[in-house]
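FYI - complex with FE2/S2 (inorganic) cluster, inputs then prediction.
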Amino acid sequence: MIISINNKIHEIEVDPATPLLWVIREQVGLTGTKFGCGIGQCGACTVQLDGIPIRSCLTPVKQAVDKEITTIEGIAPSETELHVIQQAWIDEQIPQCGYCQSGQIIAAHALLVNNAAPTDEDIDLAMSGNICRCGTYPRVRKGIKRAAAVLTTTSNTKNENHG
Ligand code: FES
Ligand code: FES
């Protein structure tokens, strides 16, 4: 079976019903995506499939064939740079234990691709499936707003430079 993770092709030998989470972590070795509940209720295992956040603990790997899988390791522009959202997470000092945060960032990333200026309600709705036992929700909200502001400024600057 051939799958693409973070724009890299992987050929894997695996039962097509295997949860994508285990393929990502154990076959491919990308351990940023976490196992929390295993039953689709915590969001720790969130990755994107063609840009849509999904629960990789419940998604059979066969559903990811011919799609692009994006994990927390794949959103930064390069190995030496952080994504704007990752930087916002540091600036707002969001993580506590950190366990849920890969899933939070991947969900936030999908939100901001589709909604450049989310309201509190938009954020709460988009992030409602990502549980944080440390209660970082207010900081997650601030981090998303900070990242949204930076991304908007960056895109305005780019447009001005090209205009
Ligand atoms: S580990 Fe997948 S939703 Fe909890
Ligand atoms: S930071 Fe600990 S579970 Fe979210």
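The mean pLDDT is 96. The longest strand covers residues 2-5.
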